[in-house]
Amino acid sequence: MHRLVIQAPEIATQDLKQLARLSDAHQIEAINQRAFKLHGAHIDNEEAVADFCESNQLDYAFIPEDLGVRDIGLVVMDMDSTLITIECIDEIADMVGIKPEVADITAAAMRGELDFRESLTRRVALLAGLPEGALQRVYDERLKLMAGAEEMLAGFQAAGAKTLLISGGFTFFTDRLQARLNLSRAIANVLEIEHGKLTGRVNGDIVDAARKQAELVSLRESLGLRREQVVAIGDGANDLPMLHEAGFGVAAHAKPKVQAEAPYCINQVGLEGVLNYFR
């Protein structure tokens, strides 16, 4: 048996009643003003529910009725355009006036049109000579958390879940976010810096889709967790293998390819919507 979680900035009562009919749910319960759960929903009616929700701009998720927030032991997140609102490398590039060129490569990689490792190498090479201080400026002036990020993390952390931030971005940002948000672990690429300037190279192996997937599996196994105890959140094509390794792989405001292939999607609400699945 499942509960059907419905979320949006505004939800009409008649829409909830129609969804209860479509899913054969027997009870409607408010989580908060932007989220409701329909108990006893039948997942074999998902196609009709999905069509209705798409037409009415509602996020939906079928969640096992007996699963609560304390059952989630690990939350794994991408950083750029997932936990935070920006693509850090695009904003770094803006410091030297080449944001459009870099952003085009970023967008193509996130859509799955370019190999991520190749795209990152190309983008980082364009940053050669940039003063290290530009990274701090991006963090201070442009980096903002995605709506609902702190609420989501606080809820999972209070229930005992470990948190992993894993990014194809850079440790300069993930390290600061780890400290700021009390994350269990953070993994990202290391920008090579010499004499206070970026060299245009990355130190060590690049964090790509395979690495994200492998790190999730490794941490899941070391914690002794089952797949259904793991949540993963991302927005780009390089997040898809990671999302498929989690019991709950969520495409958050993601690229079309990712939305089409991810098990769960959030488009209408912030990251607090992921926590609402389990409330």
Automatic annotation (TrEMBL):
EC class: hydrolase
Annotated source species: Jeongeupia naejangsanensis
Cofactor: Mg(2+)
Domain of life from the UniProt record: Bacteria
Family stated for the protein in its record: Belongs to the HAD-like hydrolase superfamily. SerB family.
Name of the featured protein: Phosphoserine phosphatase
Database matches in InterPro entries: DUF4072, HAD-like_SerB, HAD-like_sf, HAD_sf, PSP
A molecular function (GO) term: hydrolase activity
CDD domains: HAD_PSP (cd07500)
